[in-house]
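Collaborator request log, item 7. Partner lab (contact: R.S.) asked for a structural prediction of Aerobic carbon-monoxide dehydrogenase large subunit to inform their binding assays.
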Amino acid sequence: MTTKMMGAKVQRVEDDRLVRGAGRYVDDVAPDALHTAVLRSPHAHARILSIDVDAVLDVEGVHAVWTYDDLEGAMAEPLPLLIPHPTLTHGRTQYALAKDEVNYVGEAIALVVADDRYLAEDALAQIVVEYELLPAVVGIEAARAAERLVHDDVPGNVAARMEQSNGDAAAAIASAPHRLELDLEIERSACMPMEGRGTVARWDPDQNRLQVWTSTQTSTGVRAAVAAKLGLDLGQVDVITPDVGGGFGVKIVHPWPEELLVPLAAQKLGRAVKFTEDRREHFISSAHERAQLHHVEVGFDDDGRVLGLDVRFWHDHGAYTPYGLIVPIITSTQLLGPYKPGAYHVQFDSLYTNTVIVTPYRGAGRPQGCFVMERTMDAIAAALGKDRADVRAVNFIQPDEFPYDHGLIFQDGRELTYDSGDYPAMLEKIKEMVDWDHFEDFRAAKAAEGKRVGLGLACYVEGTGVGPYEGAHVHIETSGKVKVATGLTSQGQGHQTAFAQIVADELGVRFEDVEITTGDTRRMPYAVGTFASRAAVMSGSAIHLAAKRAKEKALRIAADALEADVDDLEIVDGVVSVKGTDSSIPLGTVAVLSNPLRYAFDEASKAATQFSVGDPGKPPVAEDDEPGLEGKDFYSPPRSTFASGMHAVIVETDVETAEIRILKYAVVHDCGHLINPMIVEGQIHGGVAQGVGGALYERMAYDESGQLLNASFMDFLMPYVTEVPEHIDIDHLETPSPLNPLGIKGAGEAGVIPGSAAFAAAIEDAERLPITAMPISPSQLFALRLAHQESK
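Returned to partner:
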């Protein structure tokens, strides 16, 4: 029998090509393309009084210049609001090119198309824009004060106010033996993929067909937007996503202005046209996330059991809301983590500011929620003088309580119902990994050396595999090779490996014979996208189902050819055999037989020799069949599945400089059945690195006028290899999900979610002073020390 691939640590097939520099990214497409450059607003808030482009039109090598006044039809309308919500009463989106007003530094105003990027950028300098400056609203406190408005028709800068509850939290808190209040803050940050945004388009006038290559997380979404905005039929637009140098959420918006403007330019000019974002553009015109302020009230008993929890928070979504309320909705629901909090009430305001838009960044609202809940658990433990792990344990949902319904609505519009998990077992694992029960001995030993150390713990639950669907097409070639297509995109997750493992197991073929294509609307025109840790659950399940269909057909055809019963057949290494006999037929030959225009075979070699018309006693194609050996299916889940995990970190805080050094980092993770443990661990490693960045380094620093002060890698701090843990201890717990055929859950965002919470706890444990805001730098920790000493 072939080796079972599901659960095996198979080396990623993508890596050899990519590490050798043979990747093919958007900027590598169409080297003959014209280049674009975008004029962006230098002001956070201003009216556009006039735009003079006359000087640009005379520049040799410039082919076109567009402003809003040059846009027509649907292109002149605002960009789509992708995810409406009943509570989003004042949703606003920008135009592809600014109309009348700009609302953040970096907003697109004009597009120039020229022979090369240098010429296009030089031409931008010839455009004269007259502005009337308006007061800027920067930061949550300024938005809440509402002394200035981002949009004149949005009262109080409030785009949405949402409230959910389960039970009477206020009454439960009031009657609880103990009560606490906390104010907690996470600052604005952003994802920084190695490859920025990029789009190339080519128009074929003979076929009236548009081809678009774009660095996106949702090729089918871009396709739909381009077709709608340019007035084309969906079938006239192909969107191909080549290699993507990182996404992390920022490339999920569809469309970006450039993803419309570049195809428009290609269509109008009859030439291939390209846009490649530079790093400063990524800082000031893509998307940010994270910024939230939380006020927590909690009531609890003598054991630390939460009886009532009330959370009020304010979310900064920037100047527009193209992605709706997904981030704060996730925060408000995933905040609960692995706990059952008695009565729960949450309310948030999503606020406009004159800053870059907010869309999901890896973790997507969960790091904020985890920070709030875990800081609350630590505060309860401190108030009662109890062990922090023990307080968590008394609040856990127990293994026999699944499925567990929180009585809330999740981001996908379905009930917030956890499907499976074992949180007590996970806690025991993580405690053992960091020697939790003997940490005080370690602390004392370090103190004797004049060093200060602390231990932090953070638990989380992650909703994964959100719908509505993904599909897959599996085609067995006459060579025996298997070609698989799924519509979501890849940006480093190892899809070509993990999905091939699923197919190899289901079809009984060699792993090496499976080829995976993602993100190409020519192969799979209907899909959703890669985000929210959904690829393995959604496309993995669809691929499994499609492979199952292909296998059923293969066995049916082979049974006829081998004159055997289907139940007596097996497929091993791509050969269909009658169990216990020498009677067999290669799967490639079965693919030949699946075509009614059949081949004749030489019985000895099984090689095709000539065409024949098949069996005259049978219809060419049965009514319930079709030519070819392939399977196609879609998977749509009843609701999200919920992965979980716990992270623990030991840090040393330098007594003199307040620098924070990681001594140990441990992770226990549960994503159900593992397809490829090595890939999951790679995802965790990458997530932990981003968690370190979010906890200790990454911060978007705006001044009062809305200027981003650190819009370069010289000023925006990120962890290097010297700042991330040298080694991460990882252990897995597998509680299968009952919601999909593979029993799997997502893993893509697991590593980053508890980072800020774990580091805050560890630093607080080391310093013995409250940590209520993240990220925290050495200078901030030093200032906290001084303030704490002065308050004594």
